[in-house]
Amino acid sequence: MEAMRGAPLADPALNTMRLRLNRLLNLSGKGGRAAGHTLGVLGLFFSSAESIIGYASDQALPDSANSVLAGGLLCIFDLMCLPAACSMPAQTMYSVQEY
């Protein structure tokens, strides 16, 4: 909500409600992009794991078992990778450049 309060600027004309709303929308867009990319990667991993499990089992397992196993692999992958991603500084993790 820092964007709505606005940073103290030298010129009060640059701190209008319209500009504060624009800052808020820009900040929320950055977070949304990062969340969207993360969910996309997890979805691709799940789909790939499900396909590989189905291929490796020669379709001997039912589709629901493939999905459960792929979900388990996704949880293991998430537990291994999420703490490392959370300990990174946001600027390093998303490589956001402010202009």
Q: What is the radius of gyration computed over CA atoms, rounded to a whole number of angstroms?
A: 21 Å
Number of helices: 4
Q: Termini distance?
A: 20 Å
Instruction: Give the structural class.
Output: mainly alpha
Shape label: rod-shaped
Helical residues, percent: over 70%
Strand segment tally: 0
Strand proportion: under 5%
Order of helices and strands: HHHH
Provide mean pLDDT, rounded. Answer: 75
Q: Give a short account of the largest sheet.
A: none
Quickly count the domains. 1
Low-confidence stretches: 90-99
Outline of the structure:
The chain contains 4 helices and no strands.
Description:
This protein has 99 residues and is mainly alpha-helical. It has one domain. Helix content is 75%, strand content 0%. It is built from 4 helices and no strands. Helix 2 (17-56) packs across helix 3. The longest helix has 40 residues, at 17-56. It is rod-shaped. The two termini are 20 Å apart. The model is unreliable at 90-99 (pLDDT under 50).
Task: List the topology elements.
Blueprint: H1 2-5, H2 17-56, H3 63-87, H4 90-94
Features:
99 residues; mainly alpha
